[in-house]
Specification:
six-stranded antiparallel beta sheet, endopeptidase fold (from Nostoc punctiforme), 7 helices, alpha+beta
């Protein structure tokens, strides 16, 4: 048994190949293959034969046709003018914007206002314009600003809220504190009204009730009406009464109930 190299200076398998001498002959005819060899001693070597299949060749399986892939879209560099525009939203997508028109049969704004006006009149109530423009008093004694109130009216209401619950003192709000003109710890009737009017830019110094009686335009205003005489003054703003005397009943100068206006001069701020 050979376990290493053959003697003679080369690998054992190379010397055996040399002794084979005769080589190999390969013949292919009519689908048959014969392989023959002769050894060194002239004896014929064993022959191997093979036959090709006579049947028809089997079909090569082909995968089902796949849908063609969409062609790649060209992408432009960021910031270039060649960037493709965004695709329009799908008609069935939930991200589509809602229609600008109301559904068929929906009442118009004018129809809703007319119906509300009829309902208020049948119930003995005010018109819709007065209803929207009316302020209300909350449980904290502060007034709300109507949604359609002019800016000056809103400023008067907000300033009135700042002093609505402050106590009464004669001369309060008339610069009785050193270095202060408007701010005070307590207000009298004309001092609180002057504070509210000044916040809207209507006056530039506190006024007494007698001075307010001669101020502004005569008669009631659309939003603000001032009632004044030499001894007292109050006003109505967006349907609410702002009166120092009412604070004794509810703790706030804002009141929903009216009072007698006999003996008072009626004026209003210009434009309001």
């Amino acid at each position: 048994m050979r376990t290493g190299r053959a003697t003679g200076g080369g690998p054992w398998w190379r010397s055996r190949a040399a002794r084979a001498g005769g080589g190999l002959a390969v013949l292919a005819a009519a689908g048959a293959v014969a392989v023959g060899a002769t050894a060194d001693d002239g004896r014929p070597a064993p022959q191997l034969k093979g036959w090709a299949l006579a049947g028809a060749a089997l079909p090569v399986p082909v995968d089902d046709a796949l849908p063609a892939a969409p062609p790649p879209q060209a992408t432009a560099a960021p910031g270039s003018d060649d960037a493709a525009p965004d695709a329009p939203p799908d008609a069935g997508s939930s991200s589509a914007p809602p229609p600008d028109t109301l559904p068929s049969g929906a009442p118009s704004d004018d129809a809703v206002k007319a119906e509300l006006r009829r309902a208020l009149r049948s119930a003995g109530g005010d018109d819709t314009e007065q209803l929207v423009s009316a302020a209300t008093v909350g449980g904290d004694g502060l007034a709300s600003v109507p949604p359609d109130a002019p800016g000056k009216v809103a400023a008067i209401i907000r300033a009135g809220n700042q002093v609505a619950r402050k106590p009464y003192v004669y001369g309060g709000g008339h610069g009785r504190l050193a270095g202060e003109i408007w701010q005070d710890s307590a207000y009298d009737c004309s001092g609180s009204i002057s504070f509210a009017l000044a916040a809207a830019g209507l006056i530039d110094a506190p006024m007494t009730s007698g001075a307010l009686a001669a101020w502004g335009k005569p008669g009631p205003g659309r939003w603000v009406t001032i009632y004044a005489n030499d001894g007292h003054t109050f006003m109505t703003v967006a349907g609410l009464r702002f009166d120092t005397s009412g604070r004794q009943q509810t703790g706030s100068r804002w009141q929903t109930a009216s009072r007698s206006t006999a003996g008072f001069r009626v004026v209003h701020p210009p434009g309001l």
